[in-house]
Amino acid sequence: MNKKIAIVIPSYREIEKISILIKKITEVLPQTKIIIVDDSPRSENKKINKIIEKIQNVTLISRFKKLGRGSAIISGFKEALKDTGVSYVFEIDSDLAHDPGEIPRFLDKIYKNNLDVVLGSRYIRGGKTINNVLTRIILSKIINLFLRLWLNIKLTDFTGGFRIYNRNAIKFLSNANLRAKGFIMLSETIFLLHRNNFKIGEVPITVSVKKDGKSNADVKEFTDSLFFIIKMRIMDIFSKLF
Predict the structure, then answer these.
(1) What's the mean per-residue pLDDT of the chain?
(2) 8 A C-beta contact, residue 169 and residue 119
(3) Is the C-alpha dihedral spanning 199, 203, 73, 240 positive or negative?
């Protein structure tokens, strides 16, 4: 099964952690295809190139500019689809927030339940976040509760970036007219997949937040994302009415 799985890693200035992440992934899936989509400046991107040049089954897509998580993931998906043997594609954060050791849990869930997508959730029984401050945990829970109610989808974690998709879901998203560019693309993809009758499930995961508490998403991106998700749902409601 290793050769049937690809893993897409969107990366922005995470040089020190990339080699650690690759090692952890290959311990679980030795022959899996790893695709890094890197938006770091050229000087840092060269360092990533040096890290991976002697590692098999790793592809680096270099963009040299912060173009957003959304487009990074789609670039990785399209690269994965070039290999006709790939049946499943993971996405995972580059900052070691996610533990590759939990990959078997995703595989077990998607196989046994015949699902199209499985999301890693911090907010179902068995899931948790460590190294995070209480205010950020509360804010994240409020955001995800809002998304659950606003989008009318019975899931718990719309903003987590540890997921597995089957090939049909990847093909759909690669050809979809995705409008979100940043992290809110994670919510847009769930919404579109759900609306198009893809079967979605969740598994509990442990997320380890950066010790510096910083996020690659700034206040403007957060505000823009909130307005985007509100507008997206309103447009969908009107399209059904008219």
Answers:
(1) 89
(2) no
(3) positive
- What phi and psi values does residue 238 have, to the nearest 5 degrees? -65, -35
Residue type, 174: S
Question: 85 CB contacts (<8 Å, ≥6 apart)?
Answer: 3, 4
DSSP, residue by residue, 151-162: HT---S-SS---
Kindly report, residue by residue over 47-70, the tens digit of the pLDDT: 999 989 888 899 999 999 988 888
What are the pLDDT digits (tens) for 108-117? Answer: 999 999 999 9
Give the model's pLDDT for residue 198.
98
- Full set of structural domains in the chain with CATH: 2-241 (3.90.550.10)
Tokens of residue 126, six digits? 């068995």
Distance CA 78, CA 170 (A): 8
d(CA 39, CA 189): 21
Report helix, strand or coil for 194: helix
pTM: 0.90
Distance from C-alpha of 6 to C-alpha of 85, rounded to nearest angstrom: 10
Q: What kind and span of H or E run contains 208?
A: strand 206-208
Q: What is the 3-state secondary structure (H, E, C) of 169-217?
A: HHHHHHHCCCCCCCCCHHHHHHHHHHHCCCCEEEEECEEECCCCCCCCC
What is the side-by-side order of every strand in the sheet holding 200-204?
A: 58-62, 33-38, 5-11, 88-91, 163-166, 117-121, 200-204
**List of E strands, 16-91:** 33-38, 58-62, 88-91
Q: What is the pLDDT of residues 22-32, one digit of tens each?
A: 999 999 999 89
